[in-house]
Amino acid sequence: MIITRTPSVQDIDNLDIPNAVTNVKRSVVIDFSHLWGNDRFMRTFETGIEWSHLERLDLICRILVAVMYNHRQSGHPGGSMSMMPHFLTAILNTMNIDFSNPRRQDADVISLAAGHKAIGLYAALAVLFECLKLHKPGMLPENEEMMRMEDLLGFRLSGSHGTPLMNEFGSACLEGHPTPATPFIRLATGASGIGDPASFGISLSAFDTYGENCPWVHVFEGEGGITPGRVFEGMEIVSSHDLCRVVLHIDWNQSTIDSDYAFRMDGIPGQYSQLDLQRDLSVFDWNVIYVPDGTDLVQIALAQSLAVNMDNHRPTVIVYKTVKGKGYIEGRKSHGAGHKYNSPEFYTYLSDFETLFGFSFARNDTDRSDEVVVEKRYWNDLLIIRNVLNHSDVSLAAANLLEASQIRLDSSKRNRRDDAPDLRQLYIPGAVNPSQPPDQFVLETGTEVTFRGLHGDILGYLNDLTHGAFFVGSADLLDSTNIRKAAGSYPNTIFNTISSSLSRVLYMGIREDGGSAFMSGVSSAFGPEGDQYLGHIGVISSYSAFIVDMSGVAARLYTIGQGVTGNEFKTLIILCGHASLVTGPDGDTHAESQFLQKIQECFPRGYSFVLTPGLPDEIWPLYIKSLLHRPALLFPAVIRSSVPVLDRNNLGLNSADNVIDGVYVLADADMGASNYGGTIVLQGAGVLNTFLTYVWPELRTSRLEYRLIYVGCAELFDLASQSVRQRIFPPEVAAHCMMITDFTPMTTYRWVISPFGRRMTMHPFQYRNGYIRASDEPDNVYTEVGLDGPSMLLRVNDYGNFVNYVVNSGWDMMKFFN
To answer: Most CB atoms within 10 A, among 192, 237, 240, 333?
Structure first.
């Protein structure tokens, strides 16, 4: 290790240097500005290696960043360069990781929240793997588990690009922002602020799996990513639940895309934020260590060692003061830009490297018209880096440090708790059956239940089944959405690593944005040796009117991350609470009919399911069938009001377990009969219960027979076989049906394709230009928008009489209605 004697907070405090240590709540603020150069302080630690090794490694990686940008003319070189010394020091000195197994689950976690610095991540990993290749090849994993110099040819190129050397070497396609396809990376990051709370969520899963001796989560961020509110929300969630094994590394270079003075500093107001990063982050009860020279490797190493050795049970943020793109292009202009291709300025930047190591890069012309020629030049420059490592003792020093890190990890003996969660229990064949609910979910006819209560009870049952694999949180609505019931037999208290570590319930506050990102991290963490079924499922809930929009970015990045793992998906559940027109006294500001349109079929096939159960006995089959498909995202729609458990037999309705196909025939009719009145498609618990209570009894006594179809999950229906889909919803049905829905007209267009059917379709926006008065009893709210029983009956009778007229006139319905 580099630091052989790490000063404690008490050591620093005892130096009696004013303002060196400030106690803030339970956390501390340590300002190296008051310590550096103090003889007593400097004597408290010793160094174990030549710092020149790490300095030269840092230079090699920064030069590689410049080379990569030069040949691709794409990426974010400035921040990648200013982050490099913090990143390398953490990997080589502070963290316990295993380069022979980047997916090793007891290892400390690397998370690049500042995803735009991917070019720096790729460069550093390629150099470190190259050092192992030269000196400790027995530590190398399989090619697909490592970052090779050859892979850098694929930076910001798609798989279809097919350049000659990429094809020859089988180079990976390296995205502009990292995903779990990159070694060590567990999250897709890039959208500002998402990577931080998502990374913090991993720390919860790590603690719950390994206990107090769990892996550390190291998150690398820049000041530009600190401005979104979701970062602060995530920091508060971490602190409130006493998750202490988190280190947030902030590369504070003051330069964002548009500004070179983003934050307040030395009393001068910032152009983006008035937060003083040196001290104000302690408001979240995190330790704050300020490093005034973020290029000084000794300061960096000491700060990082302090962060992981302090015993005050607080998470830590290290703020490194740097200059973005120092010596390259300094300031904001290097955020997403660099030197022009093969420009004099580019070669000037390489000169110190060439002088130090005695290798020279070829001076090529600036013509980029021939892609094959450019790729050959790129590869030749990469070979220069490889030759430097091959002839320098820095590569041996790095390889030795990586081996030492693996040894530290092995000796840390991080063992999975005996009673840790086990998601495999959910997927054991026969463990749960969508068509056979447990006794407690067999509902008694005539009783009244709430969807939210059933949802909570089902999650509680699954939590007990999986030994607590479901963590749940809500935007200050734990009881209102009944998500607290998901605790099952676990303590119905709020989770805390110190006082209530067996709880499955988290306080999120009104933080749908940060809370969704945090829960995506909980779901992202895998179990030992990459077994995804030994991790957790995160559940976040709020009003659908808020959660769908505020969780959207986190949900999208989560699906990207799941899609590249090569494993079956882990599920993140985003509960859309109070998902109907009826929200009690909260009114139209909280009512939500648009949420389905925003998320239905908005992800690749099989990635996301949106559940819209209409009757209480449909919840179990829909929920279980969907979970067994293992989607990345599950959006259950949960209404607020209670509903009766109807007698299906008396109403002539088919069994609820038919909903496992996503769409099912609720009541059948002979479409060729002379008394056929048409097909009515329904979606939404509000309209279905109104229809079955007030309209259906009248229709059953009329001269016409109607076919009823219910839509419980369009995405689940898409996965059904062609024969099943043909039986339930053949083209001739789509050609003449009408629909009654709780949601927007757009969501009906898949099912209703004829102009006539669309004119007859009923939805909340058919009157008053979409105005909804929702602060009333359900019947009155539905009357306001024309979805009450009498209005439905009138429209259905008009529809049925016309369809029956067409049928008995001998016309072909497919041709007539289209």
So the answer is: 237
pLDDT over 70 percentage in the chain: 96
With 0-12 CB in 10 A as exposed, 13-18 as middle and 19+ as buried, what is 31?
Answer: buried
The CA-CA-CA angle for residues 333, 338, 340, to 5°, reads 125
Give the whole-angstrom CA distance, residue 686 versus residue 580.
Answer: 7
> Which residues are within 8 A (CB) of 642 and not within 5 positions of it... i.e. 6 or more apart?
448, 449, 450
| HEC assignment per residue over 517-574 | HHHHHHHHCCCHHHCHHHCCEEEEEEEHHHHHHHCHHHHHHHHHHHHCCCCCCCCEEE
Between CA 475 and CA 542 the distance in angstroms is 5
Closest CA to 35 of 25, 27, 43: 43
Strand partners, 112: 220
Instruction: Assign 143 to helix, strand or coil.
Output: helix
User: Would you say residue 618 has pLDDT above 80?
Assistant: yes
Residue 529 confidence (pLDDT)? 56
As a whole number of angstroms, the longest Cα–Cα distance in the chain is 102
- Per residue in 54-98, pLDDT tens? 999 999 999 999 999 999 999 999 999 999 999 999 999 999 999
Q: H or E stretch including 643?
A: strand 642-644
- Angstrom CA distances, 753 to 354, 512, 518, 725, stand at 68, 36, 40, 16
**Rounded distance between C-alpha atoms, residue 261 and residue 258, angstroms:** 9
The answer to whether 712 and 625 have CB atoms below 8 angstroms apart is: no
- pLDDT band for 480, please (50, 70, 90 cuts): confident
- Average pLDDT along the chain: 91
- Is 371 exposed, middle or buried, given 0-12, 13-18 or 19+ CB atoms closer than 10 A? exposed
Q: Who contacts 669 (Cβ-Cβ below 8 Å, separation ≥6)?
A: 676, 677, 679, 705, 706, 707
> What letters, b where the CB count within 10 A reaches 16 and e where it falls short, cover 495-528?
bebeebbebbbbbbbebbbbbbbbbbbbbbbbbb
364 touches 152 (CB < 8 A): no
Q: Among 49, 41, 16, 121, which Cα is nearest to 79's?
A: 121
Three-state SS at 47: strand
Phi/psi for 46 (5° steps) reads -130, 155
Phi-psi region of 424 (alpha: psi -120 to 50; beta: other; left: phi over 0): alpha
Instruction: Choose among 620, 637, 617: nearest CA to 714.
Output: 637
- Paired residues of 611 in beta bridges: 636
For the residues 768-776, what does the mean pLDDT come to?
62
Backbone angles phi, psi at 725, to 5 degrees: -65, -35
User: Could you tell me the pLDDT band of residue 596, with boundaries at 50, 70 and 90?
Assistant: very high
| Res 1: pLDDT | 39
Q: Which residues contact 765 (CB under 8 A, 6 or more apart)?
A: 593, 744, 745, 785
- Within 10 A of 309 (CB to CB), how many other CB atoms are there? 13
Mark residue 446 as left, alpha or beta (left: phi above 0; alpha: psi -120 to 50; beta: remaining): left
Which residue, among 593, 576, 591, 580, has the nearest Cα to 634 in the 3D structure? Answer: 576
Cα 408 to Cα 1, 54, 98, 247: the distances in Å are 10, 19, 9, 18
Residue ranges and CATH numbers for the domains of the chain are: 56-412 (3.40.50.970), 424-642 (3.40.50.970), 653-816 (3.40.50.920)
Name the nearest CA neighbour of 618 among 674, 670, 581, 658.
Answer: 658
CA 488 to chain centre: 25
